[in-house]
Automatic annotation (TrEMBL):
Pfam families found in the cross-reference section: Sigma70_r2 (PF04542), Sigma70_r4_2 (PF08281)
RNA polymerase sigma factor 70 region 4 type domain sequence ranges: 135-187
Family stated for the protein in its record: Belongs to the sigma-70 factor family. ECF subfamily.
Protein name: RNA polymerase sigma factor SigK
Length: 195
């Protein structure tokens, strides 16, 4: 059944007519919704595009608002305001939600990129620092006497105890302890470690 669209003298759908269309839409009248859509879609799109500022996203949000009107038509209460005001409120809220959602997504992406950058930088910096420290340790080890170098290397790189170092090097334990202490002091000084 075709219904003519109620219009005002200016050719636009009137406020009272929109309320009638909304009631009919709430009852599942697709033709009434089509007329409501034609009357309100330009308003909805205008509100949304002012907030969202992206035409493609605005079209998507406007479509969501119009679908929302179809689904929520039964919730409209004339005593709370006009159909136009109710629709404009829904459109504005949807548009703001889209902007907030897009901003939150952009913030998450930036934070993730920053974490990845920082992690990559930290890993590289740590590797460089480790290599520089290792090179400095090797250089400082070369400055030790042969017995100091052997004792420190066996104790700290192979994990031997003082007694095991003494047995491996066939040197008395007190001598190993003295050489290790002297060697560690020289290493500390060479590495620039302050106590």
């Amino acid at each position: 059944m075709n219904r003519p669209l109620p219009t005002t003298a200016t050719g636009h759908t009137g406020t009272g007519d929109l309320a009638v269309l909304m009631r009919q839409t709430a009852q599942g009248d697709k033709e009434a919704f089509a007329a409501l859509y034609d009357a309100l879609a330009p308003l909805v799109f205008g509100i949304v595009v002012k907030v969202v500022r992206d035409r493609a996203q605005s079209e998507e949000v406007a479509q969501e608002v119009m679908i929302d009107l179809w689904r929520r038509a039964a919730h409209y209460r004339p005593d709370s305001g006009t159909v136009t005001t109710w629709t404009a409120t829904i459109a504005h809220r949807r548009a703001v939600d889209r902007v907030r959602s897009a901003q939150a997504a952009a913030d998450r992406e930036r934070a993730q990129a920053a974490r990845e950058h920082r992690t990559a930088f930290d890993d590289v910096a740590e590797q460089v620092e480790t290599r520089l420290d290792s090179e400095q340790v090797r250089r400082c080890l070369r400055g030790l006497t042969e017995l100091q170098h052997q004792a420190v290397t066996l104790a700290y790189y192979r994990g031997l105890t003082y007694r095991e170092v003494a047995e491996t090097l066939r040197t008395p334990l007190p001598t190993i302890k003295t050489r290790m202490r002297d060697g560690l002091i020289r290493l500390r000084d060479c590495m620039g470690v302050t106590t």
